[in-house]
Write the structure tokens for this entry.
Amino acid sequence: MTERIDPALPKIELHLHIEGAAPPAFIRGLAREKNIDITGIFDERGNYAYRDFWDFLRVYEAACTTLQTPRDFHRLTLAVLEQSARDGVIYTEAFLSPDFCGGGDLGAWREYLHAMHDAATEAERDMGITLRGVVTCIRHFGATKARAAALCAAETAGDFVTGFGIGGDEKAGRLRDFAYAFDMAREAGLRLTAHAGEWGGPQSVRDALADLRVERIGHGVRAVEDPALVDELAARGTVLEVCPGSNLALGLYPDFRAHPVARLRERGVRVTLSTDDPPFFHTSNRREYEALAQAFDWTEQDFRAINLDAARAAFCDAATRKRLVARLDQG
Ligand code: ADE
Ligand code: ZN
């Protein structure tokens, strides 16, 4: 069947975990080089294998044990941006985690960050794709580690590190325990987002808005279960970083047609489209667009409008935003 959406359609991705974007072969290569035992995280075809979201987190963290040096992250960042650029992505915001880059130590973090920033500069020069970093803490690692991550974020905030967020197990701990970390990041001038409304229901989204005062929500799709919250999100202009293929692969919805992204959009909520951890979920930007076009009869005009909204919501400076909008306008 011919594709409905031109694969080269310019795309903006606001929600991608850098380690979660590592292809299985990349992780296997590192494990071989370093003699690290990661048996049990792949299926017989060599894909990541997990039973549910919590098992996914275990497999994710096991894969991360092979990423041990700034050089590993340099190679990973280049590989990830190459793949994204092939799919037409012109701007990506990636979650970068001090916990996986030196264990929250500021000196080590600076070195890892430098390596990723170098790779981003190279990719921008060679492939025309722009990367910005959203430093992320991991909820099930606890509030103390989150504060260390926020310190790393605050100390390196600038042109490249532009945001702060929280991922991990949404059922672990209370969101308000992370407010101090988010306050630190906000005071350093960082823009804020939080994973919520993926495994937690509407109340989790309300908590992220009230306790952490974030301007964007990672996922947020379960807000659809509460009509008053949907109205509130629409009225506030809160942007959702929606990752439909991720939600399907983890069993939240049975198929694209059942996914709430179209209903949220129809109700006036600002939705954007991302892949989260593409190799884990057997997806890519191109596949997401194609599947959504088929499920909801969305056209290139719909995706253009969504990407314009993503450009407006991007955690970047005004000059970069202007450049992105111009590229979207050119098609
Ligand atoms: N970390 C990587 N992917 C994630 C997801 N989908 N939800 C929460 N934390 C994550
Ligand atoms: Zn995520």
User: Anything to note?
Assistant: The chain has one domain: 11-330. The mean pLDDT is 97.
